[in-house]
Amino acid sequence: MTATMPSMMAVDPLAASHSPNGVQAGYGVSLTDLSGFAQAMKRAQAGGTGVLEPQAVTAPNESMQALFKPLEHLNDEASSLHEVADIAQATGTDMTPSEMVTLTVRCQEFLFHSQLTANIANRTSDGLQQLFRQQA
Q: For residues 93-131, b (16+ Cβ closer than 10 Å) or e, as one string?
């Protein structure tokens, strides 16, 4: 399934060379996305100077901070495991069996937390996709 768009919306110069009248877009391209892009280009070109000014970056709000807390926890756990492994290697002696078991258990715990976080993220993504499909 392909659609031909006017050449003013060409994003890929190689794709424009294949079609004399425009760009060929492959499967999954939404015409509303392309028309929105064309309108944005027109607004940008009609803006006058054509110079984009830098925008101030705002601090993330509380909900975004809450979303990243599990990832920060995983990062802290990985850093902690790295420090323990570095200390064990720096001593130059073999680890005792209890130290090896402890490190193995901590690695398994880290793996469990990683898989749990990924599972939650995937389920959340699936739920949001289903919600958007139902509202469309």
A: eeeeeeeeeeeeeeeeeeeeeeeeeeeeeeeeeeeeeee
Helix (H, G, I), strand (E, B) or coil at 56: coil
Per-residue pLDDT of the chain (136 residues; tens, 9 = 90+): 444 444 444 444 444 444 455 556 666 667 677 777 777 777 777 765 556 677 788 888 898 888 889 899 999 999 999 999 899 889 888 888 999 999 999 999 999 999 999 999 999 999 999 999 998 7
**Which of 5, 121, 23, 26 shows the shortest CA–CA distance to 74?**
121
The ranges assigned to domains in the chain are: 3-46, 62-135
